[in-house]
Amino acid sequence: MAYCGIICSDCPTLKATKMDDDDERRRVAEQWTKQYGKEFKMEDIDCDGCLTEGPRVFSYCNVCEIRRCAKERKVENCAYCEDYACEKLSKLFNEFRPAKEVLDEIQASAKKRD
After folding, report:
1. What pLDDT was estimated at residue 6?
2. pTM recorded for the entire structure
């Protein structure tokens, strides 16, 4: 799972990377270029998950405010942040509603343990 609650194993970028499938990378790049109105190249579709420190992270991970913030705050994911759910996450949740549900569940579970 990414810091933001996106389930990496569901991500087409991670799947294409794990399969080492350039045709799938190309397909995902074309789909996301249309879907998000930003140019993606096949080379962008190469990722082992944003929690990794290796060279293979999705191109957006390098500029992702949520990832940078979570790393700076040294939280396992955003559900454990004292500022959950911040404005950065609110923007993401508008597009990726399941990520909010995942983080809400983690936060609720963590509060029960406290």
Report:
1. 93
2. 0.84
